[in-house]
Write a structure and sequence with these properties.
This protein is an alpha+beta fold. The protein has 2 domains: 2-37; 49-190, no CATH class. The chain has helices at residues 2-30, 61-74, 82-88, 135-148, 166-190; strands at 35-36, 39-40, 49-55, 77-81, 98-103, 108-113, 121-126, 151-158. A 6-stranded antiparallel sheet has the order 4-5-6-7-3-8, sandwiched between helices. Strand 6 and strand 7 (121-126) form a beta hairpin. The longest helix is centred in the first third of the chain and has 29 residues, at 2-30. The radius of gyration is 27 Å and the shape is globular.
């Protein structure tokens, strides 16, 4: 009798271990290990380079925007006036200026009017993760703003994105690239 009890205990132990192994397998295959108890962790993209700049009141902002457009175009970017797009789409009626630019290396630059008197514009440069800083371009762009436009740069910082955020960035870039190309093609079709 004692042997039969041992056999039942052995089978029960085997089934218990099989059940535990199944539960571990099930858990690992249904729950992303990057998820938190409350759900997936959000993916964020931080700019490679961000800074503010303020120009002298004597600067002609429209002329400065044109110079920035030309600088970015010379560096391979397709440039769009986001202030114009916002006004056209009815998002804003303000005369705020903004520049959004992309290039073939999947970099994005966003320049917007800042809504306070301390700075005129904020600038962000983003590139496809994992971040590999375009140090020459970053330096040249800062020099263009400070020396070329005679504007004061403040609160400059750099950051990096890990390779794990590449998928999110690619989707974000694709959406932004589609929008900029639609407006860019529309503008080209309007020219005489």
């Amino acid at each position: 009798m004692k042997q039969q009890g041992s056999m039942y205990e052995f089978v029960a132990l085997g089934l218990s271990l099989a059940f535990v192994a199944f539960m571990i397998w099930f858990y690992c295959h249904t729950i992303n290990l990057n998820d938190s108890v409350d759900g997936p962790r959000p993916v964020t993209i931080v700019p490679d380079l961000v800074f503010f700049y303020k120009c002298a009141p004597s600067n002609d902002m429209m002329a400065d925007d044109l110079k920035i457009d030309l600088f970015l175009q010379k560096n391979g970017f397709t440039v769009q006036d986001t202030g114009e797009i916002d006004r056209e789409l009815g998002i804003s009626e303000d005369d705020l200026q903004g520049i959004f630019a992309i290039d073939a290396q999947k970099r994005m630059i966003n320049i917007t009017d800042a809504p306070n008197d301390a700075v005129d514009h904020d600038v962000s440069l983003q590139s496809e993760p994992p971040t590999i800083h375009a140090t020459k371009f970053e330096h040249d762009f800062q020099a263009f703003i400070s020396d070329g436009l005679k504007c004061h740069i403040s609160d400059l910082s750099t950051d990096n994105n890990p390779a794990s955020s590449k998928g999110f960035y690619d989707r974000m870039f694709q959406a932004d690239a589609t929008n900029i190309w639609e407006f860019h093609l529309r503008d080209l079709s309007r020219k005489p």
